[in-house]
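Batch 3, record 17
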Amino acid sequence: MSHHIEPTTPTQLQGKTGGRRRTARHHMFVFALIAALVVIAPQFLYPVFVMKFLCFALFAMAFNLMLGFGGLLSFGHAAFFGGAAYATGHAAKVWGWPPELAIGFAVLVAAVMGAVFGFLAIKSRGIYFAMITLAFAQMVYFYALQSPITGGEDGLQSIPRNSLFGLVDLSSDRVFYWLVAAIFMAGIFFVYRVIHSPFGEVLKGIRENEQRMISLGYQVQRYKLVTFIISAALSGLAGGTKALVFHLASLVDVHWTMSGEVVLMTLIGGLGSIFGPIVGAGVVVAMQNYLADLGSLVLIIQGMVFIVCVLVFREGIVGVLAKWLKTRL
Amino acid sequence: MFELLGIPPQALFGQVLLGLINGAFYAVLSLGLAVIFGLLNIINFAHGALYMMGAFVAWMLLTYLGIPFWAALVVSPLIVGGIGMVIERTLLRPLHELDHLYSLLLTFGLTLVIAGLFQNFYGVSGKPYPIPAALTGVINLGFMFLPIYRAFIIVMAVIVCFGTWFLIEKTRLGSYLRAATENPEMVSAFGINVPMLITLTYGFGVALAAFAGVLAAPVYSVNPVMGNDLIIVVFAVIVIGGMGSIIGAILGGFSLGLVEGLTKVFYPEASTTIIFVIMALVLLLKPSGIFGREV
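Prediction for the assembled complex:
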């Protein structure tokens, strides 16, 4: 008997308590709330901090598409996030590309990487899948460490943002913020649409019972691969944007600790919840920011949070909230 | 002296030796992972951190208590193995019935905690650990100089690997273990304490990691991040050898270390990535690994 990653919000809820339309209304409300928060956040918080949060939140959403909805635990998403950061950095710094092209290029690079790694990794399941993705990501890390293109230990520094469409100067954080906010909103809405498309339903079916989906005639491997590519591309979108926010692409972005962080974000927020990863990203980014002075204690605290979440808080913050509100979030 | 493909033989044999030493560590570490995976069906992400802990415990024994290398070779694995058993009982046991991915995540969290603790107390710089007096010096083999301690590592790794293989494949205890891997319910129906067996197995796998750590202490500097990148290479070794296969872990470990060493001679740029490339090829041709059973 196999035990699946528990979805935070049982699908049964969907049928009960008012049905899909009510749930969809809740979701539109949540989207409006997120948009409002994104608009007012820079009034209260340092814009770079908020942008960092938005990038990681998008990254975690992309990651959760695979883990929470496809049941595939990738331990190598740093490869797409960091690889895209390097790609954006290179395009913007060396080729002088404007941000929309630099980030677009990064998304493409991440998608191609996702297609190659995904093709090899989806042949296996569960822990095996996790280890293989981790190993591929480590290969990318070693490549970044040695290659002259990625700048080795220094990484790519002082990456210019250039001007949007050659028109809007983005060097000011206050201006750049709106581009990041737009990318974030578009990204999470895209993930939301994927989850609620027929494709997403099949994906959830595969998570719940792969054998049955195969016997129903679905090309399960293809669905998994496409999910992997979408998730990688969106992680690339997040990573590329992050490189422009900080003017930096470095080894930190491709290291396995980054892959671990995105797992942690998803876990804290709630595996398989739609908006959980955003909350989880907020918790992790805030934790890193406010505890930065504690040095290696951050590592210990992060590890403890990991352990506590796995042992007693598997539903995550949004999972618990959704149960309490009797809806899917 | 003769040259081989334009490479001086000293350089070649030197790298082969280094490759074999790395291979010895890969073999002992992946063996521990394979033993744990066989019975618990989990991948112990904390293996690298426990390897580091093994090295640190040896260093602490020497520095604070004056306990020499030879004793540490036994005591450190016992201590770390004991810690492993406590981890299994308190943290992994509650997750037994859940998706095994949760155990992977738990051991990942554990890795962060262990690495963070040691970094907090000892910083990231390395602590030197002297080579025991009896093993210093080199042997002149004619074509190269062989440092005795390095030969000792390889010999010890081979002995431990063979001993573990023998224990699992040829003894009564090993037969319980293999039976419990196949069908734990049936084995416990025969009156064998399976939970105890699981705890002991985890402790044993962890002790192997610690043993590798003690062996590594005199050649690599003892530092909190020493297991970090190593463990992921070991994961790749396991994927290549076949998950849970004892023979795959041992042979895979040594031969991939050797391949890595040779790559360093002929195409140094690829030496860090060669194992991952081989992994990709194996996945293409035989996804269950070279010695693995079909899953």
